[in-house]
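Amino Acid Chain and Its Fold in Token Form
===========================================
Scope: a single protein chain, as residues and as a discrete description of its fold.
Amino acid sequence: labelled as such and written in the usual single-letter residue code.
Position: the record begins directly beneath this header, with no further notes in between.
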Amino acid sequence: MPSRNHFKQALRDKRAQVGLWSTLPFPYISELIAGSGFDWLLLDTEHTASDPIVMQQQLQAVDAARAGTNGTTSAVVRPDWNDTVLIKRYLDIGAQSLLFPFVQTPEEAAAAVAATRYPPHGVRGMGGTMRASRFGRDTDYVRDAQNELCVLVQLETGEALDRLEEIAAVDGVDGIFIGPADLSASMGVPGDVHHPRVRRAIDDAVRRILACGKAPGILMLDEKRAQELLDLGALFVAVGTDQVLLRKSTDDLAQRFGRGPGVATASY
């Protein structure tokens, strides 16, 4: 049997999942942050210098950290595009939850689902000895895999939000993630995720996703705002990124000693 997808089950049970966004594509870092106790980690490939080989090592690192802490931290992989061949590779190395970027239409959402299903329900290619099936030892994998695969689609523009209900109605879509940065750009205020119009659009989207019976998700680095969205009903919320946390902590430490970006230092 495929491994139990605790993240997918939590979304089904409407248990909020608090996560961390990881853009540093190194298994050492993945293992470190997986031990922090977050419910889920987003392992990104869209905006990182990563590939399926690195991602396999990251997934192994998260598995090792989870085993070492008896935790249930789940890995969610964001491919760099909604591409059938690429998705096959991530599934074969053991990804169970995928966040598909820049989904604009119900047809694109349906293509994402189809990429995760074997025929006759989809177009995923057969591979008999890949890591996902424990190298062929799990003889039930092909039959049961889709039960534990979680499909999340990312809506990042006003046009996508206009089609939210149509996208949510696609069978096999488990959750809808709102991309706040790209949404702000599409609304004419790039990077201003706290602009009143953007805030209203996000809040409205969370309510609409819930009304459709799907799980709403978002990345929100402002902790107060993240809690507001959790209180509103968002079910998977990333509240920080490893790269920003590292940058801020190193900048702050340097500045406490009179160093850091933009701080003139004496020459000895």
